[in-house]
Sequence to fold (291 residues):
Amino acid sequence: MGRLNYFRYFRLMLVVASGLLAASCEPKQDKPFQPFPTGSGWVDMSRPNCGAGYAAFETYAKQHAWGLSGYEAVQPTTVGADPTRPTLWAKVKVYALEGSGELYIFTRFGHPAHPAVLIKSLIMTTEGASWSVVGCPWGPRDDYRRFATASRMLSDGFMGEIQQRPSPFDKIAYPLGQSPEENELVHVRTAAQVVGAVADRAVALKADQRFMTTLYAFTKLDDGMAALNLTWINEPASGADRYAIIDVARVSYQSNEGPRATAAWCDGPDGKRTPRFCATAARETAFWLKD
Fold:
């Protein structure tokens, strides 16, 4: 091989090697998440890929949702002696997947089985339609089993079940401390007591591992409407005290008692310990008064 040809050959090999090295350094493309194991021509709908975790399933549901998907609803988590009458209801988030006939039901903070997901698939046979219910328990297994059992028993009426709370005229036997009235609704006499009472309720629920995403506070002067609602987009950190919990809450008003309540809190000594909450409350008050 001549000297010139040798250098051409060496340069060619160098280019090839560089290309191979660059290709090996490129990040591999992640495979699209599949909620169920798949093979050549089959999908095992009986056992989800639970190892992927709660976040992967919710991301998948959001990406494939349609219609009114992604709304929070109330669903049964356990049943009593009568399988048609649930005894415990808790918040879930529901996604309907486009074109699949599947519903993904995710537990939210405060749900006994959280974190968990149930996947309801509509099955069509010659005998009619029915629901198949599978899911993933990443939280307490016993609570998940009660949650899944209640869902299976009520599958035929599922759409009605998730769109409204139990009828207020139903005599439902809630376990102590678990009814919406005992958990989500806070009743006090005056606006000055509202935020402190909500803070104490939130601390108690978190200590009992039943943190609620929204708490509604009422005073004697509300005329049926809540003074204010406090909502938590994310659950406060473990060990958070009443001030840390209030400081990350979002506030909205339903009556004139709401701005009075936040003013009483933020103008007092407690306000100095919840600066973010008080800034949010000031903006909400300005918006409320503008209307």
